[in-house]
C-alpha cells in the first residue's frame, strides 16, 4: 500500500497541532504570520480531495484545542459544535484560496485568502452572538506595531495584513520565485507590510514623544475576588466577601486611589438585596471619599439585568449602566441599550461590561462621544483571560482611549490608547487580588475607524461575492 494514500493525514497531524498555537486561547503572535501560509502551500500540492481532507483534519485538530474551554462555558455537545464552527471559516478560506491560486495566473490571486478570511471574519462579527471571537486579529497582542493599524481600519485590517502575508508565502513555497506572478505578489505583500508596520512604528514613536503630565492623571485601584455570591448564598458567606471588598478598597485608598474598579457580577441579587448592596457601596464610597465602580446582577420574577453602578466620593449613585452584549449563560437577560459616560476629575469615562468589548460599534459610540477612558468590570472563564484582554485592549487602539478592566477569574489590567499594558495582575480567590497604578491620559483621539467603521470588512465581503460570481460565470462558460 502506497504511503501517498496517507499523505493528507500525515501532513495534517503536525500542522494541526502547530496551528493550535494560532487558534488557541494564548496564541503565539509570530506563528500567525507563518503557519496559515505553510498549510495553504501544502494544500496547493495535493489533489482537491486530498487537500480538503488535509485541511479539514488540520483545522479540526487545531480548533479542538479549545474544546475544554467550550465545554466549561457550555456543555460537551455544544462544545463539539463550536469546535466545528470555529474550524469552518478557516477551512472555507483555505479551500477558496487554493482554488483561485491554482486557476488564476495573476499576482492579484494573492488577495484570495485575505479577502475570503476577512469577509468571513467580518460577517461573524456582525451576525454571531459571540462576534468574531477567535479571529486571527486577536493573536497579535504581543506585537504592537501591527495592532496600530486598527486605529485606521479596525481588527479586519489586521486580519487582512496577516492573510496576505500567508497567501504570498504559500505562493512562494508552491510556485517558486521564478514565477512572475509570485514575484509581483511578494512585492505587493511587502508594500502592504511596509505601510502597515511603518505606520505602526510611527504611531508608537509618537506615543513615546508625549511628555508625562501633559494630560490629566488619575490614581487607579482595581480589586477582584473570584468567589461568587449567588442568590442562595448564606448570609455569612456573602458578608465575608463584601467585607473583603471593603478591606481591599480601603488598602487601595491608602495607596492613593481616586477611582476603585470592582469586577462584574460580584453578586446576583433580588430587588431587596440590590437595595442593600447600593446602600453598602454608597457608604463605602463616602467613607473612603473615592469614586467606586461595581458590577452586580439584579433578578426579579420576569427579568435579570447585568449592571454596573458608579458612585461619587460623596456616596451618591451617579450612573447605572446595563450590559448590552450578553455572554453564554445570560442570553435570557434583559439587554441594555444606552451608553453611560461619567466625568471623573475632568476625565470623560465610559462604562462597559465584559462581553460589550467584543463588539466594536459600542466602543466607537463612546469614542465619538468624547470618551478618553473606558471602565470595564468583567468576569472571565479563567482559561480565556488572555484572549479576553487581547480583544478588549484592541478596542482601545481602534478608538484612541485607555481601558481599565477589572475581571474575576481573569486579569486586572490597565492599557493605553496604543495597546501598551501599563499594569497587570491575575485575579484570585479570597482574599482576592488588588492592583494600584497611576494613569496619565491624553485628550480623546478617535481614529478614522471610530467614524467610518468596518470599511475593510465591507470591501472584502464585496470582493468575495464578486470572486464567487466570477467563478460561477467561468464555470458556466466552460460547461
From TrEMBL:
It is a multi-pass membrane protein. Keywords: Acyltransferase, Cell membrane, Membrane, Transferase, Transmembrane, Transmembrane helix. GO terms for cellular component: plasma membrane. The chain crosses the membrane at residues 28-44, 51-70, 76-96, 108-129, 149-172, 184-202, 448-469. The keyword Membrane applies. One of its GO terms (biological process) is lipoprotein biosynthetic process. The keyword Translocase does not apply. It is found in: Cell membrane. Belongs to the CN hydrolase family. Apolipoprotein N-acyltransferase subfamily. This is CN hydrolase domain-containing protein.
Amino acid at each position: 500500500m502506497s504511503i501517498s494514500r496517507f499523505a493528507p493525514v500525515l501532513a495534517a497531524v503536525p500542522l494541526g497541532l502547530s496551528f493550535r498555537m494560532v487558534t488557541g486561547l494564548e496564541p503565539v503572535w509570530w506563528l500567525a504570520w507563518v503557519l496559515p501560509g505553510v498549510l495553504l502551500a501544502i494544500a496547493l500540492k495535493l489533489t482537491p480531495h486530498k487537500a480538503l481532507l488535509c485541511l479539514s483534519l488540520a483545522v479540526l485538530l487545531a480548533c479542538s484545542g479549545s474544546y475544554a474551554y467550550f465545554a466549561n462555558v457550555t456543555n460537551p455537545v455544544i462544545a463539539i459544535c463550536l469546535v466545528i464552527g470555529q474550524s469552518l471559516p478557516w477551512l472555507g478560506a483555505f479551500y477558496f484560496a487554493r482554488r483561485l491560486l491554482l486557476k488564476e495566473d495573476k499576482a492579484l490571486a494573492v488577495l484570495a485568502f485575505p479577502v475570503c478570511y476577512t469577509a468571513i471574519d467580518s460577517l461573524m462579527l456582525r451576525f454571531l452572538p459571540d462576534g468574531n471571537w477567535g479571529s486571527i486579529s486577536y493573536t497579535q497582542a504581543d506585537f504592537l506595531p501591527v495592532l496600530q493599524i486598527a486605529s485606521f481600519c479596525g481588527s479586519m485590517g489586521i486580519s487582512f495584513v496577516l492573510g496576505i502575508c500567508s497567501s504570498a508565502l504559500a505562493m512562494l513555497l508552491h510556485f517558486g520565485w521564478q514565477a512572475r506572478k509570485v514575484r509581483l505578489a511578494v512585492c505587493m505583500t511587502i508594500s502592504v507590510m511596509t505601510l502597515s508596520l511603518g505606520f505602526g512604528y510611527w504611531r508608537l514613536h509618537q506615543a513615546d514623544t508625549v511628555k508625562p503630565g501633559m494630560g490629566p492623571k488619575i490614581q487607579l485601584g482595581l480589586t477582584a475576588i473570584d468567589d461568587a455570591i449567588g442568590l442562595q448564598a448564606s448570609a455569612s458567606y456573602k458578608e465575608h466577601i463584601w467585607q473583603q471588598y471593603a478591606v481591599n478598597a480601603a488598602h487601595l485608598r491608602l495607596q492613593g486611589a481616586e477611582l476603585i474598579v470592582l469586577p462584574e457580577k460580584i453578586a446576583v441579587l433580588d430587588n431587596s438585596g440590590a437595595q442593600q448592596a447600593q446602600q453598602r457601596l454608597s457608604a463605602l464610597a463616602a467613607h473612603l471619599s473615592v469614586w467606586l465602580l461595581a458590577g452586580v446582577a439584579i433578578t426579579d420574577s420576569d427579568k435579570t439585568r447585568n449592571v454596573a453602578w458608579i458612585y461619587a466620593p460623596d456616596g451618591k449613585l451617579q450612573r447605572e449602566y446595563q450590559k448590552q452584549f450578553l455572554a453564554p449563560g445570560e442570553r435570557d437577560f434583559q439587554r441594555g441599550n444606552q451608553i453611560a459616560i461619567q466625568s471623573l476629575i475632568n476625565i470623560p469615562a465610559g462604562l462597559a461590561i465584559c462581553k460589550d468589548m467584543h463588539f466594536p460599534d459600542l466602543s466607537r459610540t463612546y469614542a465619538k462621544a468624547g470618551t478618553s477612558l473606558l471602565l470595564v468590570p468583567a468576569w472571565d472563564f479563567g482559561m480565556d483571560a488572555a484572549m479576553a484582554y487581547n480583544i478588549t485592549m484592541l478596542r482601545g487602539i481602534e478608538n484612541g482611549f485607555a481601558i481599565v478592566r477589572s475581571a474575576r477569574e481573569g486579569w486586572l489590567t490597565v492599557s493605553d490608547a496604543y495597546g501598551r499594558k501599563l499594569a497587570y495582575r491575575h485575579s484570585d480567590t479570597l482574599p482576592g487580588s488588588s492592583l494600584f497604578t497611576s494613569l496619565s491620559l491624553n485628550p480623546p483621539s478617535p481614529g478614522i475607524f471610530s467614524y467610518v467603521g468596518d470599511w475593510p470588512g465591507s470591501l472584502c465581503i464585496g470582493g468575495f461575492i464578486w470572486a464567487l460570481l466570477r467563478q460561477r460565470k467561468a464555470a458556466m462558460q466552460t460547461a
